[in-house]
User: Fold YhfH family protein from Robertmurraya siralis.
Amino acid sequence: MIISPIEFFRTLPKKICPECGETMKEQAESYLMECDRCLSKKTE
Assistant:
């Protein structure tokens, strides 16, 4: 059975930052792997 695109995206797991383990807020056009806090630590 083919699942609808809406159901597919609804059932995806939350994105988790590999650096700190925090659940990230998804953004439509973001391919970032780390959360904002970890990214800001890398640019300092």
